[in-house]
Amino acid sequence: MKISLFTVSLLGIVMGAQAQQNLSGFAPSSQAKQQKTEQEYRTKQSAERYKLHLHKLTSEPHLAGTPENEKVRDYIADVMRKAGLQVEIFPHDIYMSKSPGESIVELVEPIRMPLNNREFILPEDKYSSDPRLTPGWNAYSGSGDVTAEVVYANYGRKEDFEQLKALGISVKGKIVLARYGGNFRGYKAKHAEAAGAAGVIIYTDPSDSGYMKGITFPEGTQPSDNTIQRGSLLTVDFTGDPLTPFEPALPLDGPKKIKRVDPKDAAFHKIPVTPLPWGSAVEIFKKMTGNKAVPAGWQGGLPLAYRLEGGPTLKVRLKVKQDKEFVRVYQVVGTLTGSELPDEWILAGCHYDAWGYGSTDPNSGTAMLLTLAESLGKLPQKPKRTIKICHWDAEEHGVLGSTEWVEQMRDELSAKAIAYMNFDAAVSGKMFGGSASPSLKKLIIEAAQSVEYPDSNKTVYEHWVAQKGAKKSSTVGIGGSAPVAHENEPTIGNLGGGSDHIAFYMHVGIPSLSAGVGGPTLYHSLYDDLFFYHKFVDSTYKMGPMVEQVVGTMSLRLANADILPYDVSRYATDLTTHLKTAEKAIKAYSPSYSIEKLLAQVETLKQNAEQFEAKAKALLSEDKLDKSKLKAINQELRNLEKAFIDPKGMAYGSWYRSLYASSDPYSGYASWMLPAFQYEASLKSTANLADIEARHAKAIENLNNKIVSLNQQLGGTASSLGGGKN
């Protein structure tokens, strides 16, 4: 066995850190075995292997549904098979935009000028000349050819269109010009169409991402005047294939037939939508002659005074011809079967389709997961529980592949899944961070405390704490969802929308997390390639092994723990914060509102959770564990998160069944904690509060009863389980 110099340099410090760290969920004898396993695991990483996989995965552009993406699929499957994992490939037929089709933007009056919608070919970036690279496009755009006046709508948020209306400006029959940021691009199209717009142009403004933030590409990391953000517009009221809500989009030619919605009845955008770089958008702004200046906060970074209206002398043509069709996509799942508890699953995943090369987004995460599979496969001792490494297709078109797999495997996942860990673009810089459900926050922290940050004398955790903006005081709540942190702990975010954890967490109720390192990005542009990665992200490729060590540590601890290392008392801590945040939002328009009854329930929950943790810790310290009773305890622990799963779902979409967390239905990205309350507050309504409170009271009571049951199983004294040692 060859140990890299990188590994040797870390081993002494990490072994010392481990010797001082009590591992949550492990009895002393098990902890000794686990530490030995982790020490051996951390000799397996290699910057060279990570670099090799990243280069193999991202040497060609590979959109979902293309032959190049199928080559990536086959490479992933081959690597995992060679690593000793059992590989399954799950096909799904999804109705989607496979290619950009035709997209044209041009000035018609007062001058004729075609506007560029492609990134430039750069001599220093050999990847930029590939003929397979596409123009800028937005998947799930409507088709149309319109010539009309323009209206600037800031970020195209719900409140922006409301403000335009209040100012007496109509977008009916006009082309809306909206900048990226503030919400999911699909909602820009949705709000514009609802207001009567004939089309939408979405551009990247340099005040948000460009020369006002720093040096532009290829000299620097900021988008240049020809860098384009692509992305999906899909905004149906559920996640997944738009024709098969709640059901998997199984192959059309397969034995099991799935009822599909007729495409003409699906809620697709009907108006044409396309993205532009700011170097093209500025040509429109230059010709705007409307006499109304923009409201405060609407001025962007282009070198001119922004106006709300283009005026009657400015006409712009927007043409999009984009077909939708059934596309076969593939989920690739590698399984390392547990030696003792094969029907208890830990899942780690990342999508593999990309808008272009995807060297940071997503395939830095894909490459890391491939090295994870290889490192786990080299261990002489299999983990006790099953570890599944999952690679999803068609995420970029609307988190499609993973959702269809979850819907296909829903019953098994409900019974067997312990955690889902998502690593989309997980090795995209050098700044560590994470987001998680309450029960998994401690897992991220403890794993980060066990891994050394490269070329430093610090652990990943120490580097994380020292980062600018890592503490809770510097984190601003998004969408009314305040961050929650213990004292002297780095902020761990709330999971929102935008990636493959959604179905696991918000539909089925599986504890989930996302973690990794971030940094500069040319998000969804064709310059997200190996030239950019090597020059600006990590020329040493050491971040891949580091993140893999954190991920492997989390995976092995979940797989081998005697009692699952969930942070049970964290539910009470976080619920208290989110309930108070919801109360504050409602008090803003209903001053007498109080959420005290639910807070009182959470106080009881807190006491019982702390009692469970004390009992579990005492039991583990005695090192006398009855495996059959442990199995029952772990089964109950796996069901804790499901206390929040409500079959009624959310008012804005019944597919979103978690009362605890959802993506924001207005922005698509932000996390909404206690989303039923958040939605009611967004409507400034009190009509449904009694029902919402009753549903939350039932969920908290359900969660509390599960914890009481755990305490009863642990018994009055820590030794009541009896039995011999493992």
Q: How would the global form be characterised?
A: globular
> Averaging pLDDT over every residue, what do you get?
93
SS-based structural class?
alpha/beta
First-to-last CA distance: 30 Å
Radius of gyration: 26 Å
Helix content: 25-40%
Tally of DSSP β-strands? 19
Unreliable stretches, pLDDT < 50, 5 or more residues?
1-19, 472-480, 717-726
- Strands of the widest sheet, in order across it, are 1-12-14-13-15-17-16
Give the strand content: 15-25%
Query: The biggest beta sheet, please?
Result: 7 strands, mixed
Q: Number of helical segments?
A: 20
Secondary structure layout plus pairing:
Layout: H1 5-20, H2 28-41, H3 47-57, H4 67-82, E1 86-97, E2 102-109, E3 113-114, E4 138-139, E5 144-148, E6 150-152, H5 158-166, E7 175-179, H6 185-194, E8 199-203, E9 231-232, E10 273-276, H7 278-286, E11 315-321, E12 324-336, E13 341-351, H8 363-377, E14 385-392, H9 401-408, H10 410-416, E15 417-422, E16 431-436, H11 441-448, H12 460-466, H13 502-508, E17 512-518, H14 530-537, H15 543-560, H16 570-587, H17 596-622, H18 627-638, E18 661-663, E19 671-673, H19 675-682, H20 689-714
Parallel strand pairs: 4-9, 6-7, 7-8, 8-10, 13-14, 13-15, 15-17
Antiparallel strand pairs: 1-12, 2-3, 2-11, 5-11, 12-14, 16-17, 18-19
Helix pairs in contact: 2-15, 3-8, 4-8, 8-15, 9-13, 11-12, 11-15, 16-17, 16-19, 17-20, 18-20
Task: Give me a quick take on this structure.
35% of the residues lie in helices and 15% in strands.
Keywords, separated by commas or semicolons:
disordered N terminus, 726 residues, four-stranded antiparallel beta sheet, 20 helices
